[in-house]
Amino acid sequence: DLKGYHMWLQYQPIKDKQYKKAIAPFLKNIRSVENSPVLSNAMEELAMGIKGMFNIEVNYNLSTEEGIVIGTTDILEKELGRDVKSSLHEESKEAFEIIKDEKKLFIIGNSVQGALYGAHHFLRSLQLKKTIDQLEIISSPKNDFRMLNQWDNFDGTVERGYSGNSIFFKNDQIVQNKSRIKDYARFLSSVGINAISINNVNVWEKETFLITKKHLAEVKKIAAIFRGYGIKLYLSINFASPMAIDQLASADPLDENVKKWWKDKAKEIYQEIPDFGGFVVKADSEHRPGPFFYNRNHADGANMLAEAVADFGGKIIWRCFVYNCLQDWRDRSTDRARAAYDHFKPLDGDFLDNVILQIKNGPMDFQVREPVSPLIGAMQSTNQLIEFQVAQEYTGQQKDLCYLIPQWKEVLSFDTYHKGEGSTIEEVVAGNIHPYKYSGIVAVSNIGDDENWTGNTLAQANLYGYGRLIWNPSLTSEQIAEEWIIQTFGEEKIVRETILDMLLKSWPTYEKYTAPLGVGWMINPGHHYGPNIDGYEYAAWGTYHFADRDGIGVDRTEKTGTGYAAQYQIENQRFFEDLDTCPENLLLFFHHLPYKYTLKSGKSIIQHIYDTHFEGYREVEELIELWNKVEAYVEETTFNNVADRLSMQLANAKEWRDQINTYFYRKSGIKDEKGRTIY
Ligand code: GCW
């Protein structure tokens, strides 16, 4: 039994006798009213959970009176003559309902997937010890697309992976033993994920061949595993595949031979996998090939692929992470933050309706703090997905603790004003502001083949929370964290309270000892862990902070800067441009200011930098003190896993504190008011 392996599906024995007594009668028999692989998996999960929590071996006895009945609205109605449809038929295809009568519990889905989500909801409720009366519910996902991207390479490495190697690929092969893939599918379906791409968006030479005969038979097996859990399989593709695979002379999206090549390719894939999701495409980005090479635009590129998969119901998920990564610091007018909007906004309306643009949550790249990308919601007639990063590339790499749900909630609650007040990102990506045919949320996964899946066991909370949040964005960060803690560690009060406290403090703490006031990027170039204040300042990636002896920050105003702020609706433009209203945690993202500039706290920027860096370090010491409080209640391997990582975090925070403080003291020549040690 690997430690931490079961994530939040621990199904630990429930000790409360009264609770057991009240629920047990319903748990002895399970019956499904129809056959389907998804429902079989739901039954298997129910049996596993009930056995773990109640030590009851369920019967699959069809004649019995008491028990759980699971199935879809249509069939249940026919079989049982029950009007179960009335409450669900308005809801999404994936919605579910749980109804109880005296002796039976009905878990009903608008589809088999819905029923599976219902089964998971039911098991979660039992782990959380909800009473029988609290079990009744109707639940419908807010977002239709609830996706994960793996950045897994064929050799088994994972780009920006902090949890070991790939569970999909090893030594340039698809893994033979797929048991971890099945468990991963279980975890994902338990929080409502319904789509996945399994290979890195950077599609290198060998991965290019995933869509060929050489590998499709194995890909098909993976698709079947995920299908059984309601998850659609996508692959990332190399835009230059026709050249790489079949030596075509070009990959020009308007070339007839190229179009035909992709049509044939789509046919071949769909013959193997009839419900294949489609392609994820990173084109003209960080040296990957794309339509620009042929003087075509991104609508030309995406539409060519979209036509190829359209007859099969396929989609093209086209990434907007397109920017010039070879910039010159002397050129103050080029601003990487502007890039996605500048490239894509003019193409609104040009994309076919099975293309969906995938846009990172911020305009740069998953920093600890960024404003919301102005492109999201700015295209009325083009399907959009927002992209989050569950992997902690810039937020501590699963060594440092950083619970990200509060960050995502902040993004979702941002008002774009695209259709007046209330046009929040949450509503935009749910498809409620513009009439998108497809929309929703996607994120880079944080798992690998470490026995606890996520390197740091506490990082499991981010994967869990991602799924829960995008199903129901009205859940609070606290609710999600509490659910996760109880399912993972049990319900002991001190454990609940302590870990909750740690999770909720972790993002602000990480922000304090790293990049101040929204400036970002003071990280080591390349691997992105630890401080290197000028690392990116002297690289061409276009992520400057422009610190000199007088001040710091990037002027992105319309009036005197790069004009980035004008990519927002006027309400937000004004808000960011005006020093009085610009949120201070983004101050240096939008403005270049002197070190002596006074913040609302009354502190100068330089004093704020010193103070937050001393505080950040101190708060990591507190995280360690908190974790030590739960030692007696947490299984040893897990306790040590987190304790080890917290000590790495402390060393990291110290390094950040001292390097940042020294750097800015030297630049500015202004002393710390409190006279603390600055090296
Ligand atoms: O965040 C950056 C990463 C790259 C990544 C790229 C992207 C997959 O540093 O490793 O490449 O973004 O999102 O495409």
Detailed description of the structure:
This protein has 679 residues and is α/β, with parallel strands linked by helices. It is built from 20 helices and 17 strands. The strands form four sheets. It has an eight-stranded parallel barrel. The protein has a five-stranded mixed sheet with strand order 1-2-4-3-5, with helices on both faces. Helix 2 packs parallel to helix 5. The site of 4-O-methyl-beta-D-glucopyranuronic acid has 11 residues, from loops.
Rg over CA atoms, rounded to whole Å, is 26 Å
Count of helical regions: 20
Strand content: 5-15%
Low-confidence parts, pLDDT < 50 over ≥5 residues?
none
Small molecules (ligands, ions, cofactors) in the structure? 4-O-methyl-beta-D-glucopyranuronic acid
For the largest beta-sheet, the strand count, sense and barrel status come to: 8 strands, parallel, barrel
Total E-strand runs: 17
Distance between the termini: 48 Å
Mean pLDDT over the full residue set: 96
What multimeric state do the chains show? single chain
Decide which structural class fits the backbone. alpha/beta
Widest sheet: strand ordering? 6-9-10-11-12-13-14-15
